[in-house]
Amino acid sequence: MLRDITDRKLAEAELGQLSRRLIAAHEAERALLARELHDDVTQRLAVLAIDVGRAEQAAPDSAHAQAMRDIRHGLIRLSEDVHALAYQLHPSVLDELGLAEALRAECERVGRRGSLQLSVEIHGTPGNLSRDAALCLFRIAQEALNNVTRHAKAHAASVTLRDLDGGCVLAVRDDGRGFATGRPGAGRSLGLASMRERIRLVNGTLDIESEPGQGTTVVAWAPATEEAS
């Protein structure tokens, strides 16, 4: 019996290490792709837009002027979309300015995409918040907001961040259609599974409360500096 328990604990520890390495590799790939998009693709699109603009100015009354104008505007919009995708893949503001500013920027980005009324409240973060904890909470907020915009059919949502019990607690609430958490398969989507795995690896907690017609609340807490087991 004791040997079985020891073997199970070793297997769980190895699984945790594997999950941690997979997430780290995933984040590294996202960062590399984001840099390529930002430093290469968006720059090339900008050059194309400038070239088309010059051609448009050289022949403002030509039969193709309107077509060139439409192409230039399309290139500008495409460049903005690529820039937004690069940010979503790897939010550099998280490393440069911290979790609070990264959440504000993410909420602003999500708010611009549609009619969702989105508010954000920051009530302080621990000064010693580790990068792993900050990245974990940011990704959970990102996934929760993605669920709100794609599935919840919500009119309003809020994101709250505060210093609590030696760590940081994040809450994402919406007034959408919600779901029955007790039914079989509820809350088992790939996105929610990713949230749970991320928070487990930093020794945090995750609670999801929802009822049909009553919206959904996602609450995640991560310790500021505790090493993942």
Plain-language structure description:
The structure is a single chain. The chain has 229 residues and is α+β, with helices and mostly antiparallel strands. The protein has two domains: 1-89; 117-223, Heat Shock Protein 90 (2-Layer Sandwich). 60% of the residues lie in helices and 17% in strands. The protein contains six helices and five strands, in the order ααααβαββαββ. A five-stranded mixed sheet has the order 1-2-3-5-4, covered by helices on one side. β2 (156-164) and β3 (167-174) form a beta hairpin. α1 packs antiparallel against α2 (65-89) and α5 (131-152) runs antiparallel to α6 (190-201). The protein is elongated, with a radius of gyration of 22 Å. The two termini are 23 Å apart.
SSE arrangement:
Layout: H1 2-58, H2 65-89, H3 92-97, H4 99-113, E1 117-123, H5 131-152, E2 156-164, E3 167-174, H6 190-201, E4 205-210, E5 216-223
Parallel strand pairs: 1-2
Antiparallel strand pairs: 2-3, 3-5, 4-5
Helix pairs in contact: 1-2, 4-5, 5-6
| Mean pLDDT over all positions | 82
Hey, roughly how much beta strand do the residues contain? 15-25%
CATH class of the largest domain: Alpha Beta
The CATH superfamily label of the largest domain reads Histidine kinase-like ATPase, C-terminal domain
| Side-by-side strand order of the widest sheet | 1-2-3-5-4
CATH fold description of the largest domain: Heat Shock Protein 90
Distinct helical segment count? 6
* Quantity of strands, as a count: 5
- N-to-C terminal Cα separation, in Å? 23 Å
Shape: elongated
What is the element string, with H for helices and E for strands? HHHHEHEEHEE
